[in-house]
């Protein structure tokens, strides 16, 4: 039973709290401090607090608590005696309960409309991110600080369910756990365990992202855990070698046991770098949170960072939230690797099902969307990779390499040739690189949405039917092709029908875009057999448009806009990464998303299981090697079409091509010295055009012809140097 002294102490504390409630209004607190010439840092030091906390008290986002409340009240009372409130007719500064000027995202607390119910107030306090002078680097070598930069907020009204953004970066300093959100918003996190953190996110954090399509689903909130957060929640700073091989934390770890005791569930992937924790849904509402554990390699430096100089491990949480928040706003909430996210984006924009009302019963039932991929279909032997289970009984020898007549080989270019004597007279080799080439190839492309139909008996080629066709194109001769009334030197151009540029020698499998191009060039196409899809659509169009808009907006943030041309464009491209390093990372991530998603359509086993055994990727409806082949075929023949028109317009021929990087001999070091232009100063019709939009080209790099000859001599042969020439951009030329 409590003693009399304990009861009196409790009552005194209660009376103290009541007395202390008489604090000035938040704007008056700020006025008094500024009138005294004091900084927030000085007050924070005196009260043994943080500068951010003082800012929250002055903005009204949080209130001081005992024992600091009494000391703060004493300070304000003393300042008020020295600096009384100005007369009523004197101008007073307007209150600023918004995020700091360093950020232009949504305000931390949205005022509900008069006729709308106010959302529940989170238990966690809301505070603005600390604003300091902008820094040139986002590194955090010692003292913790926020790198303040302008942030572009997502357009449109904020969904009240997700008013704090799609994600938060969880960090811990001096025992205080903070959730850094988009727009500079910071939330105080009361959770002391991982299960409590998940429940706080589901009930109070207001994190998530609204669906991208009306028939889709909302994105689950993501929490990015930093190294300090791992330590705070009892997680290891790194996985052991055994755990890395398994891709998850050991089942006996105390945090995993906490999760089990709390009634939370993990997916089959377990507690790994991208852990997904959930409770059973409440009606149609999902209750799921995804953890992105940064120190465990959740954000691969090859996709999300600078692979030669990683920035993310030392990036301040506010900068990281800005980076990933912008990616979520412009692309979608990350789901793992950029490739996985890109594939999920296809489904998010073309959801397979919708709710349809049954007129007879009045109930809603599931219906399929006509413009989406709605099921997992049978595969075609010629379209699958070598390890696919369907080839187990094909009768191939163990180390048999399938030929073009046995396998659909639609891949990007990897081609080179020796320079002619005339070309060696040029001092330079200039490389131009196609922006977002795979995404651009997907634009307007008709692909199959259902399963394959096998056509035999020499079917007639139909360019409207996507699929794979067995055709002999050995009769094709590019030197017979007329481009604007001129012929080209076919010996100095790669064949459009093979990735290595060699001339076809017999029957081979081709995707529909390749054969449509053969017809466009005027050659006969006589299939022997085919596997086609009869239900078709431009499935990838919304995916392309969203990635295009994300890329163009990000480049514009770095000063590279669509109206720039010629030398002005080249100069803007050269300095863009110094304008905003975070935006430079976002550019890399968007390009990796486009490239990786196309590759994911024919994901291979990566040694997960023995040859000819099923592997997890095969269970996806979006495991569609025929669509990947169509995109790669469209990219290659689209590039070749411009090669032909460039050769016809300016007698200009490439000497090497690596995916989407084209090497031209040049009299000068700039693309302006080699690309053909009209007398009016515009790009020759149909040729490569400098610009930022997908499908246009940028400068990848320049080297001398003497350098190239030295490389050939050292290797002892001519080889593809396209992706070795990257003086303008070390991340270019890797197949965007």
SSE blueprint:
Elements: H1 4-20, H2 26-35, H3 40-46, H4 51-59, H5 68-82, E1 126-128, E2 167-173, E3 176-180, E4 185-189, H6 194-203, E5 222-225, H7 227-232, H8 241-246, H9 254-261, E6 265-266, E7 274-282, E8 285-293, H10 301-304, H11 317-330, H12 338-349, E9 353-357, E10 364-368, E11 413-416, H13 421-424, E12 428-434, H14 437-442, E13 447-448, E14 453-455, E15 467-472, E16 482-483, E17 486-487, E18 507-511, H15 512-520, E19 529-532, E20 536-537, H16 541-557, H17 566-579, H18 581-600, H19 625-650, E21 656-659, E22 661-666, E23 697-704, H20 705-715
Parallel strand pairs: 2-5, 5-8
Antiparallel strand pairs: 1-4, 2-3, 3-4, 6-7, 7-8, 9-10, 11-21, 12-22, 12-23, 13-20, 14-19, 15-18, 15-19, 16-17, 21-22
Helix pairs in contact: 3-4, 11-18, 12-18, 15-19, 16-18, 17-18
Describe the structure.
This protein starts with a helix and ends in a 21-residue tail after the last helix. It is of the alpha+beta class and 736 residues long. A hairpin with a 2-residue loop joins strand 7 and strand 8 (285-293). Helix 16 packs antiparallel against helix 18 (581-600). The chain is built from 20 helices and 23 strands.
């Amino acid at each position: 039973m409590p003693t009399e002294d304990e009861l009196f102490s409790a009552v005194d504390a209660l009376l103290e709290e009541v007395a202390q409630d008489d604090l000035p209004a938040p704007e008056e607190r700020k006025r008094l401090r500024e009138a005294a010439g004091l900084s927030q840092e000085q007050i924070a030091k005196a009260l043994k607090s943080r500068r951010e906390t003082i800012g929250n008290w002055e903005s009204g986002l949080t209130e001081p608590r005992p024992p600091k409340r009494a000391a703060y009240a004493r300070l304000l009372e003393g300042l008020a005696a020295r600096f009384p409130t100005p007369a009523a007719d004197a101008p007073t500064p307007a209150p600023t309960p918004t995020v700091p000027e360093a950020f232009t995202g949504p305000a931390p607390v949205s005022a509900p409309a008069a006729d709308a119910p106010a959302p529940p107030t989170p238990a966690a306090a809301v505070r603005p991110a600390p604003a300091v002078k902008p820094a040139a680097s986002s590194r955090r070598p010692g003292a913790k600080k926020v790198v303040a930069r302008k942030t572009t907020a997502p357009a449109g009204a904020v969904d009240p369910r997700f008013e704090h953004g799609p994600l938060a970066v969880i960090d811990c300093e001096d025992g205080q756990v903070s959730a850094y959100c988009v727009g500079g918003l910071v939330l105080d996190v009361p959770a002391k365990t991982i299960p409590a953190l998940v429940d706080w996110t589901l009930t109070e954090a207001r994190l998530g992202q609204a669906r991208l399509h009306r028939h889709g689903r909302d994105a689950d909130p993501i929490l990015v855990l930093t190294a300090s957060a791992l330590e705070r929640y009892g997680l290891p700073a790194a996985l052991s070698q055994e755990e890395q091989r398994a891709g998850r934390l050991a089942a006996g770890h105390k945090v995993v046991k906490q999760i089990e005791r709390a009634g939370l569930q993990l997916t089959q992937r377990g507690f790994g770098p991208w852990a997904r924790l959930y409770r059973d849904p409440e009606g149609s509402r999902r209750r799921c949170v995804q953890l992105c554990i940064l120190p465990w390699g959740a954000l691969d430096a090859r996709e999300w960072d600078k692979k030669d100089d990683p920035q993310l491990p030392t990036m301040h949480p506010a900068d990281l939230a800005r980076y990933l928040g912008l990616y979520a706003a412009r692309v979608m909430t990350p789901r793992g690797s950029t490739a996985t996210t890109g594939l999920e984006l296809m489904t998010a924009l073309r959801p397979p099902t919708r709710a349809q009302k049954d007129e007879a019963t009045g109930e809603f039932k599931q219906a399929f969307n006509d413009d989406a991929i709605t099921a997992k279909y049978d595969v075609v032997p010629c379209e699958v990779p070598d390890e696919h289970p369907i080839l187990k009984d094909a009768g191939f020898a163990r180390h048999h390499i399938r030929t073009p007549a046995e396998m659909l080989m639609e891949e990007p270019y990897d081609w080179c040739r020796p320079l002619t004597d005339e070309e060696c007279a040029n001092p330079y080799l200039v490389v131009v690189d196609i922006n977002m080439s795979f995404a651009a190839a997907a634009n307007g492309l008709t692909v199959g949405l259902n399963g394959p139909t096998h056509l035999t008996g020499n079917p007639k080629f139909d360019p409207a039917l996507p699929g794979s066709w067995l055709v002999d194109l050995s009769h094709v001769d590019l030197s017979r092709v007329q481009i604007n009334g001129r012929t080209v030197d076919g010996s100095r151009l790669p064949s459009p029908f093979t990735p290595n540029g060699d001339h076809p020698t017999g029957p081979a499998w081709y995707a529909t875009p390749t054969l449509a191009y053969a017809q466009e060039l005027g050659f006969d196409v006589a299939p022997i057999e085919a596997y086609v899809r009869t239900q078709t659509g431009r499935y990838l169009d919304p995916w392309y448009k969203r990635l295009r808009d994300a890329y163009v907006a990000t480049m514009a943030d770095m000063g590279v806009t669509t109206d720039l041309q010629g030398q002005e464009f080249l100069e803007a491209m050269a300095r863009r990464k110094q304008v905003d390093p975070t935006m430079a990372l976002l550019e890399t991530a968007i390009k990796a998303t486009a490239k990786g998603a196309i590759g994911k359509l024919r994901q291979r086993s990566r040694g997960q299981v023995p040859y000819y055994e099923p592997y997890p990727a095969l269970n996806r409806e979006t495991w569609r090697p025929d669509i990947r082949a169509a995109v790669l075929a469209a990219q290659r023949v689209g590039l070749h079409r411009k090669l032909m028109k460039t050769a016809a317009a300016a007698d200009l021929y490439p000497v090497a091509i690596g995916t989407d990087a084209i090497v031209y001999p040049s009299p000068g070091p700039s693309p302006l010295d080699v690309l053909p232009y009209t007398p009016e100063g515009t790009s020759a019709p149909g040729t490569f055009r400098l610009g930022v939009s997908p499908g246009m080209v940028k400068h990848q790099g320049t080297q001398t012809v003497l350098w190239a000859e030295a490389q050939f001599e050292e290797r002892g042969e001519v080889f593809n140097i396209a992706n070795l020439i990257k003086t303008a951009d070390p991340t270019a030329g890797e197949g965007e």
